[in-house]
Structures are given as C-alpha cells and as structure tokens.
Amino acid sequence: xxxxxxxxxxxxxxxxxxxxxxxxxxxxxxxxxxxxxxxxxxxxxxxxxxxxxxxxxxxxxxxxxxxxxxxxxxxxxxxxxxxxxxxxxxxxxxxxxxxxxxxxxxxxxxxxxxxxxxxxxxxxxxxxxxxxxxxxxxxxxxxxxxxxxxxxxxxxxxxxxxxxxxxxxxxxxxxxxxxxxxxxxxxxxxxxxxxxxxxxxxxxxxxxxxxxxxxxxxxxxxxxxxxxxxxxxxxxxxxxxxxxxxxxxxxxxxxxxxxxxxxxxxx
Length: 267
Prior knowledge:
Layout: E1 8-12, H1 17-28, E2 32-37, H2 40-52, E3 57-61, H3 67-81, E4 86-89, H4 105-133, E5 137-142, H5 156-175, E6 180-185, H6 204-216, E7 221-222, H7 228-246, H8 258-265
Parallel strand pairs: 1-2, 1-4, 2-3, 4-5, 5-6, 6-7
C-alpha cells in the first residue's frame, strides 16, 4: 500500500515510542490515525501532539490483553472514521531479565499475554471486519530482531513471545486473501519507553523512516539493524550443520514432509 491518503490506521501502544512515531509518519502521508494505549491520559496528550502537527487523529484507552477492550477499539474506530484500512499491533512489554528457570509463571504470561495474545486479539477482532470490507488493507504485527534469534541474554520470556508472533504472522499471511497485506515489523534496539530509558539505541524516528519505506513496498519482513544478519547466519549455520550431519538430503526425501503430505491429501 503505497498511498496512505485518507486511509484509517489503528495503532495499539500508539501513545509513545515507535507507535507514536509511526502515527506521525502515517499522518504526514495523509492518513487518519487512531492510537490506543492503557493510559488514557498519555493517549490524549499524544492525540493533541499529533493534531498540533497537522495529523487527523483520535485515541482511546485499550488493554490489548482484554478482548472486550479490543472490540471497543474497533467500535471506536468505526464510529470515528467509519472504516479501518491498516492495523498495527504494536503494544508490547519488555523482559524481567533473569534466567529462564527463575522466571515466575506471572512474568512469562505477562510477556505472552501482551506481545503475542494481545496482537492475536487485534487480529481476531479486526481481520474479519477488514476482509469483509473487500478493499486493500493491511495488518502489521510488531515482532523484534528477537523474532529471529536470542538477541537479549536473560530475556527468555520476551524472546519466546517474539518468536511466537513471527510464527503467527507467517500463518496469518497464508490464511488471508491477497488484498490484505500482512507483515512483521522487526525493530532492533530502538530508544523507547519499552527499553526503560535506553538511549544508546537507534533513534525512534530514524527507525520508523527505515520501516515506512518497506511498508510502502508491501514487504512482509520490515527490518533494520544490519548486523542482525550475523546472528541470523550463525543460527542458520548451526541448524544446517545439524541436518547435514544427521539428516542429510536424499532422493525423494519429501516422503515424510508434512506440507507435501497434506497437499497430497487435499487432492
């Protein structure tokens, strides 16, 4: 989707950081923006800041872990702008930073409830409505460089949730019609509230400028931070070594391949 003029864009976690920067960029391209967050006062402040920059914006409170809140967000969007064209599932939480075996059940579930199931609530509530509109539309889930490898030591619950949203987004891409663009936004270290005051990451607006170029081109993977390829290559080389050593390719080796067998069963 190259033209955002008069498109309605909904961004969860949109009152601060990457979400707010995306809201500004979509708005500057003529989009009408709805931002949502748990803290209504911050949402209202950010809506006013967007309006001051000439962006047509509205906002409401939303806890993405609560399905009813996400349904209310859709209702608010439809009442305000009558449709929705783009959903950015951006709301997220960071890690408790401790060894995996010391993490509490509550800490693990917090990461999954917001980072994965919160985005999945957005998909479940918004996607059918957007598909029923029958017009070009898009859903972007915000993953992380941690969707590809373990980038943050001691952050198993966060990394696992970001691996999981990668898998869900790939499946969503396969499950939806061609007129719905689906993508995974994968920030590296970016300065935002999620990083609890980190100031040595990439500037937030610099990051969203990089990401928006890829969104306009309809890319599935929205990437940045070039050094990530070293970690990705390291992981893939380790997997490749295991297969080449213990499960090397052979003629007709698709005999036990799940996708091949399921395709055969469907015919």
